Amino acid sequence: MRLRQIPAREPEKLADVAYRTVLERILAHDLPGGSVIQERKLAESMGVSRTPMREALGRLEGEGLLVRLTERLLAVRVITLEDYLHSLDVRAVVEPHAAALAARAFTPSELQGFEAELEALARADAAEQEALHWRFDDRLHESIAAHSGNPFLAKTIHEMRRYTKIFERQTVPARVRPGIDDHRRLLAAFAARRPEKVREAMIDHIRNMRKRMLDGL
After folding, report:
1. Model pTM score
2. Does residue 145 lie within any of the structural domains?
3. Alpha-helix residue ranges (DSSP H) falling in the chain
4. CA 170 from chain center: how many Å?
5. Where are the alpha helices (DSSP H) in 70-125?
6. Are 157 and 200 part of one and the same domain?
7. Residue 95 sits in which domain range?
8. How far is CA 105 from CA 110, 114, 181, 188, in A?
9. Are 49 and 92 contained in the same domain?
10. Distance from C-alpha of 197 to C-alpha of 185, rounded to nearest angstrom
11. What is the pLDDT of residues 100-142, one digit of tens each?
């Protein structure tokens, strides 16, 4: 009997690689708001041709992270305080609901992993905190969105978090510790598997984000 051959995995498209790489640089504030995008130099730095880079940049423009200055010139969008507050307004509507839907979806081992990461963040020195914070924050909030079981909620949360993350990284890079207590309460609510407690913890978390930002300006 002949064994059925498993088709080889299709290589990742160069445009997808370029898209992800440029997106990561924007989110990390390596390409800050207002930076003019030099398509040729970016393509050369990643070892790709200009065609996949152009496709990647067009995708980022369509998602609102790049803006067109002229017919041929793009720049990284400047995320303003107004953009940040509007994004938080959307998160305040959808994310507590998503969290409540996800209240009973986390396994004990998942929660233990997040608790261990959070305690490592609390003990970290200043040099390590920002990277640890964003890794934890991204994983937790993206997991909550995914565990909600609603792909439309997840997509909205994913997009709104991009704007809040960019603004926070460009404005308050040392904001790590104030969020630890919020996340502890959120994880405790998930551990209790009580949707209303989870909803309340997420509402408080987003409200505190807004307050800390406005108090720090």
Report:
1. 0.83
2. yes
3. 14-27, 39-46, 50-62, 81-101, 108-123, 126-147, 151-171, 180-192, 195-216
4. 14
5. 81-101, 108-123
6. yes
7. 81-216
8. 10, 14, 22, 14
9. no
10. 9
11. 999 999 999 999 999 999 999 999 988 888 889 999 999 999 9
